[in-house]
Amino acid sequence: MKIKNSSFIGLLITLVGGLALSVISLSGGCYFIHIIYNEVAPKLHFPELEYLDMFWILLMILLIRLFTKPTSND
C-alpha cells in the first residue's frame, strides 16, 4: 500500500509540474506573438505577418511530433 501511494504522489507531482510548465511556455509564446503583432509588424509593414498565428500553430505541431515518440506494438 505504501508503494502504490508514493507512486501516485509522484504521478500527481509530475502531472502538476508538466501542466505548470505548459502554461508558462504557452503564455510566453502568446507574449512573443503579442510583441510581434503590436510593435514589430506595424514598423515593418509586412502583410505576411498576419499569418504568423498559423505559422505558430504549425511550429507547435512540428515540435510535438519531433519530441514525442510514436508507440509501436512490435
TrEMBL record:
Ranges annotated as spanning the membrane: 12-37, 49-68
Keywords: Membrane, Transmembrane, Transmembrane helix
Protein name: Uncharacterized protein
Lineage per the UniProt record: Bacteria, Pseudomonadati, Bacteroidota, Sphingobacteriia, Sphingobacteriales
